[in-house]
Design goal:
The complex is a heterotrimer of chains A (276), B (329) and C (287).
Chain A: E1 2-13, E2 20-32, E3 39-44, H1 50-57, E4 65-70, E5 73-74, H2 81-90, E6 91-94, H3 109-119, H4 125-138, H5 143-146, H6 156-168, E7 174-178, H7 186-201, E8 206-211, H8 214-220, E9 223-228, E10 231-237, H9 238-243, H10 248-256, E11 266-269, E12 272-275
Helix pairs in contact in A: 3-4, 4-6, 6-7
Chain B: E1 11-24, E2 27-41, E3 46-50, H1 57-64, E4 72-81, H2 92-98, E5 103-106, H3 120-128, H4 136-149, H5 166-178, E6 184-188, H6 196-213, E7 216-221, H7 224-230, E8 233-238, E9 241-247, H8 248-253, H9 258-265, H10 304-308, E10 314-317, E11 320-322
Parallel strand pairs in B: 3-7, 3-8, 5-6, 6-7
Antiparallel strand pairs in B: 1-2, 1-4, 8-9, 9-11, 10-11
Helix pairs in contact in B: 5-6
Chain C: H1 2-11, H2 13-31, H3 66-102, H4 104-119, H5 122-133, H6 139-150, H7 152-166, H8 169-176, H9 181-218, H10 228-237, H11 240-243, H12 247-274, H13 276-283
Helix pairs in contact in C: 1-2, 2-3, 2-12, 3-4, 3-6, 3-7, 3-9, 4-7, 7-9, 9-10, 9-12, 10-12
The chains are: A alpha/beta (276), B alpha/beta (329), C mainly alpha (287).
Chain lengths: 276, 329, 287
């Protein structure tokens, strides 16, 4: 479905007198197969090139070298508006900052309706509303809750769920989630992460999950690549790599994760708090 | 740590209430950001304050540091430092002489600490020189020695802020905050914007400096992992109130309040793929918080009493306080 | 919308004063439709009568009733200012939004044109136009020319806002919601740009009226169709100040000041109201 073939991207910074070549992405290749929905995690710190890679997959930026192919078509060949819309119907993004993802001066349902009108067969407002409601129900909300609300009235977790709902409306095959939970409160984070699991298992959508958080990546990913300064340093099955990292940098990353040492998991159930 | 329980606390906050009151074109709004907070920080301890967004922790820091600007107003309560009783009533001149010498900060965005067009050395002069009454040459040597002690190269002094990486800048910020050996340091999300590996280095640096100087640190962040790594005692804030407070290990091992229990159990960990749940609902808006216990709309243990009465923060076990009717019957 | 205006009227003194001034001016301008004298006629009344009844503002040395003449002049001047403002705003918006959003070569080309227009010295060019066109330079044509000269500065302002909006995440969300460039500019970015546009509109009206008055006083416009500047011109021609006919100059100047101050106060008070950040604070949003 998605194929990255020795993709590289470099930038030139500076003016006439001092130029600097920055290698953002250096020879990255991987494949995601259709028909096998999976969560593919890209781990990296800042400067690792993961966001640049996401922009290239979303066709917002062209690679300097190499090819990106979606369903066989090279992304560089997508030029006309119709082709771009067709691509966007299959590949949708979720961004890091849920508070910035929507225009604060506009009501949230505006985006849902707009996406419904452009990407589905919805011809009128009633059909668009039905579409939006279906998508919202999939993420655990409903149109009645969201109708007429502005972004500042809702929490980060709810906004991010609405962003996921919006991304689901065109029935995409692939969702690119760029640090989707780093700006969401801790108590709401797991519901979004669990939602990604549901998207993979029930809706058969593949997700590219870009993050620096090893723990959530361990929790939901199937495969994983670790990037450092634009290069892939380790890749493979998620749990294998994270349980036993081979590369020095991966080991460093794993050591740096701050995990509270708890003897046994704790659950709060109705009536009393118990240790399980 | 050492026996500090007998000595007076460095910081004592009693019954603090601070609201934002705004009137825009005839519309009144009152945001109850800090609504009845009591806690103490002892000498030579790192006290962690954990809370999500809209828990009020940022307002709490501003209030404690007496950095209040309208529309933020103190409605009730007092804040006492061992070096500055009743800091909220002090005049701004007295406050100025306190700052940096006794009370300093480490902030989140290290870029905003430094003047972008002046070198780092100038920042040290701007912040600390007036507190250290020594001639300039001696001051410079002091700065160099301090940097060496925290394993920073003296060459950073000649750099401009934008020439340093984020982690390096944050380390310089810590050096800047500790050069006068203050009694109390407020660290507000010191590592949130940093990469994971750099974060560990910065946190270790904070701990080393704290051990050496013996200051008390109020560490405020939403990241429980950071608290687990660094804090001696931990207080959990929710919607403007402290709901639980205990020594760190105790809190993670035996969380009493349902909110804490949930936060702790929902932390994902490498090596453990057991399913975890997120909490239902979302943190309340501080402009219209729920009646009674503010957590009751999301609490699995909510009773009728929780909807009307505010549970008091009381000592359940020695050193461990919680505010919940379900535990403290 | 009306509720908003009523709120403003109650709470904001600047807005109240500005609204009062402008309403007075508008009323006087509208009265011009009921004028008993055709505007261009001269010598229809007694000459040089001081303010009294029935000529409440007096009469001029050319035998025209000041009040009705002034109402006609105010109407012409206001319509002129409004035309210039609207034409130049539209151009500034289009150029600013498009070049800010698209960037690249389009941006460079548009901005070169823009900067050329900024640099053109206004008064000499307008005088040149007058000398070339003479009688054909009616108020209408003058409005068009001034609109063409007055959009450049504000286009840059709008462009800088558009550039910052382009990198915000909701723009990317809009792109992936399938919105076309035109839709994005119109529905997402326009509300952010409106406060600038609004305050520059009122400033633009002030500027164009001021320039027109300057030209008219110097005699470089169509001095036969009544305008405030024209009245001052004729007053100077008949040496009104020396002859003691103070009302001929005083009243036009007074009303000009009322227009300027009124528009300025309106701009300042409404701007705070429309600005997205203060709108958000009112709605209870951003902290």
């Amino acid at each position: 479905m998605l194929e990255l073939d020795h993709v590289s991207k470099d930038y030139v910074r500076g003016g006439l007198l001092s130029r600097q070549r920055i290698q953002a992405v250096d020879d990255v290749s991987f494949r995601l197969e259709s028909g096998q929905p999976e969560i593919f995690a890209i781990i990296g710190e800042s400067g690792s090139g993961k966001s640049t890679l996401a922009s290239m997959i979303l066709n917002l930026v062209q690679p300097s070298m190499g090819h990106l192919r979606f369903e066989g078509t090279d992304l560089a060949g997508i030029r006309s508006k119709a082709e771009r819309l067709k691509f966007m119907a299959q590949v949708q993004p979720i961004f890091q900052n849920p508070f910035e993802a929507f225009n604060p001066l506009k009501q949230l349902d505006h985006y849902l309706f707009m996406t419904a009108r452009r990407f589905t067969a919805a011809k009128d407002d009633a059909a668009a509303m039905r579409c939006a409601d279906e998508a919202l129900v999939k993420v655990g909300l409903s149109l009645a809750e969201v109708r007429g609300r502005f972004p500042h009235e809702l929490s980060g977790g709810q906004l991010q769920r609405i962003a996921v709902a919006r991304a689901l409306i065109p029935s995409p095959k692939l969702i690119i989630a760029d640090e989707p939970v780093s700006m969401v409160d801790a108590s709401l984070r797991m519901s979004i992460v669990n939602l990604f699991k549901t998207l993979r298992d029930d809706l058969c959508i593949s997700i590219i999950y870009i993050t620096h958080d090893l723990a959530t990546a361990y929790y939901i990913s199937d495969r994983i690549i670790i990037m450092r300064r634009g290069k892939v340093v380790e890749e493979g099955d998620a749990k294998t790599v994270l349980d036993n990292p081979q590369h020095a940098y991966s080991k460093q990353l794993k050591d740096a994760v701050l995990i509270p040492h708890i003897s046994s998991p704790v659950h709060a159930t109705k009536g009393k708090i118990s240790h399980v | 740590m050492n026996d500090s329980a007998s000595a007076a606390p460095v910081l004592s906050v009693k019954g603090l209430k601070a609201y934002y009151r705004t009137t825009y074109f005839g519309v009144n709004r009152e945001v109850k950001a800090v609504d009845g907070v009591d806690f103490e920080v002892q000498r030579n301890e790192i006290y962690g304050l954990a809370g999500e967004s809209s828990s009020g922790k940022t307002t709490l820091i501003k209030t404690i540091a007496a950095a209040l600007k309208p529309p933020l107003e103190i409605v009730a309560g007092r804040v006492d430092f061992s070096f500055a009783p009743n800091i909220l009533r002090m005049k701004s001149d007295d406050l100025d002489s306190l700052r940096w010498r006794h009370l300093s900060y480490i902030v989140q965005g290290s870029m905003s600490v430094f003047n972008p067009v002046r070198r780092i050395r100038q920042a040290f002069v701007d912040f600390a020189f007036r507190h250290i009454n020594k001639p300039r040459a001696e001051f410079d040597k002091l700065v160099d020695a301090h940097l060496a002690r925290v394993k920073l190269e003296p060459s950073v002094l000649n750099a401009y802020p934008h020439e340093l990486s984020g982690g390096m800048r944050q380390r310089v910020t810590i050096a800047l905050a500790t050069i006068c050996r203050p009694d109390f340091i407020i660290a507000d999300e010191p590592t949130t914007a940093l990469d994971v590996i750099v974060q560990k280095n910065v946190l270790d640096m904070i701990r080393e400096i704290q051990r050496e100087i013996g200051s008390s640190v109020l560490l405020v962040t939403h990241d429980l992992g950071v608290h687990a790594h660094l804090a001696d005692r931990l207080g959990i804030m929710y919607a403007g109130r402290i709901v639980e407070e205990a020594p760190t290990e105790d809190l993670f091992r035996n969380p009493l309040h349902p909110y804490t229990a949930h936060l702790v159990s929902s932390l994902p960990r490498i090596g453990d793929a057991a399913p975890r749940k997120g909490l239902e609902g979302s943190p309340p808006s501080l402009a219209a918080p729920p009646e009674g216990c503010r957590f009751h709309p999301r609490c699995p243990l909510a009773m009728a009493r929780c909807r009307t009465e505010v549970p008091p923060l009381i000592t359940v076990k020695p050193g461990h306080r919680a505010a919940c009717f379900a535990i403290t019957r | 919308m009306f509720k908003a205006l009523r709120d403003l009227l109650k709470t904001n003194l600047e807005f109240a004063i500005g609204a009062a001034l402008i309403s007075t001016i508008l009323v006087i301008a509208l009265l011009s439709f009921f004028s008993p004298y055709p505007p261009m006629d001269m010598y229809v009344t007694q000459l040089d009568l001081p303010p009294g009844w029935p000529h409440i503002f007096g009469t001029t040395s050319r035998g025209q009733d000041m009040f009705w003449l002034l109402s006609e002049a105010i109407r012409n001047t206001l319509v002129f200012g409004l035309c210039v403002a609207i034409l130049s705003r539209v151009m500034a918006l289009v150029v600013g939004l498009v070049s800010g959003y698209l960037g690249g070569r389009v941006d460079r080309v548009l901005m070169s044109i823009n900067d050329t227009f900024i640099v053109i010295p206004l008064l000499p060019i307008l005088v040149l136009f007058y000398f070339v066109l003479r009688d054909k330079l009616t108020m209408g044509w003058l409005a068009v020319i001034m609109a063409l000269l007055g959009w450049a500065y504000d286009a840059r302002l709008i462009r800088s806002i558009a550039i910052s909006l382009r990198t915000r995440e909701f723009t990317r969300t809009s792109v992936f919601s399938g919105m076309s460039t035109r839709e994005i500019l119109q529905r997402e970015h326009l509300p952010y740009v409106l406060p600038v546009v609004f305050s520059t509109t009122l400033n633009n009206i002030n500027w164009s009226i001021g320039l027109e008055v300057t030209l008219a006083v110097l005699g470089f416009t169509d001095i036969n169709s009544p305008s405030i500047g024209g009245m001052i011109y004729w007053a100077n021609q008949h040496t009104a100040m020396v002859a003691g006919i103070w009302w001929w100059i005083a009243f036009p100047v007074l009303f000009l000041m009322m227009v300027f101050i009124g528009l300025y106060l309106l701009a300042v008070s409404m701007n705070e109201y429309i600005d997205p950040r203060s709108r958000l604070s009112r709605m209870g949003g951003a902290s």
